[in-house]
Amino acid sequence: MVDALNIVITDGRCMQQTTESYNVHPWWKVDLEANHCLGRITLVNRGDDRNERLNGAVVRAGIHNDIFNNAACGLPVTRDQASIPGAHLQIVCDPPVIARYVSVDDDFHVNGEWDNLLTLCEVMVEEYPMEDCLQTTEKNLLIFLFGILVWFYPLSCLCLDLTALDLHGMQASQISDYENSKFSAASRAVDGNLNTSYADGSCSNTGYNAHPWWKVDLEANHCLGRITLVNRGDAGNERLNGAVVRAGIHNDIFNNAACGLPVTRDQASIPGAHLQIVCDPPVIARYVSVDDDFHVNGEWDNLLTLCEVMVEEYPMEDCLQTTIAMIVNPSVSITCLSTLMFVDKEITNARPLSVVHMKSPMQCFMRCKMNNECWSFDYVMTSGQCRLYDVKAGDLKADDQPDCLVYAVVRG
Description:
Radius of gyration: 23 Å
């Protein structure tokens, strides 16, 4: 609803389908009538009863009238979020998204076929000024690569091809092994064996856990574009319903962002299916993981079984189009970028133009782009500190600093 704020449905201020209109996949949509640069969308949940129906709801934003062609903002509403009557649930679009349509949809596999009404007491949308968000024209395409901002000019950069990573022998781990048996070890999911029969010893399998997880260490950072899960083919394949694939630089998997959306019930219903999860945009990652919250499958059936995990990457040099040498060596020709980056560095050879606090590297980048004197900035992931500098790429000096990112901005 977009009328006035009230969280009691009997007052007639909340949108809900009639009891005759239960749907397998209910949805709601608003047309903003023009493109906007959206940063945050807030859902106001029902406050009198049935607030739990919002569990699993997905917020989407994009330019397409068909909502299922638009990407999701953030992750779906969790059971804990939906459990609070009248809650204001903030969904952050990070990076911001250009959108005319905002929608909310919910797959019945989360809430059950006979309780799948979508109720919204208010939807609130917040935007960035378009000129500040983009600082560009239609000829430019802004891509956010896990904290790495790259400004491409169409046709000036090569298209990239995915190649498979060889995961055999890489260190895999999981929350527990089923019945403490090596037969179900985490390494079974990266042994190169695509057999989908658990009985043949080719699948990993956790014990019963409230939130089971599996993880592999790629031993170095890679630019990941696609992750494929091979589901069990003999029995129990439906347990993969709701599984989330994450990729990132953190050993603690829950500090890494999700790639794509969770596995759906329809996907998990196919025995032995190869489920492709696309990381769009690509993500810089050393760790790939899969986890599943028990509220989807039930506390007593929450095993995580993986018969194989396959990872595909873009060449790092093509994905980033840069190395640290490009930043410190001014003789290197830069034709495709507006931003170059150090990881775990801080600028040490200049006083900042200003110091502010921002919620993400994207917001720090936009603040720099708005300041014509700013040529570089550093951003501390843990505190949100954003320092702007007038130091150009060729003059930049940086020292080690954990959880800090340094960017050199190329203008013009």
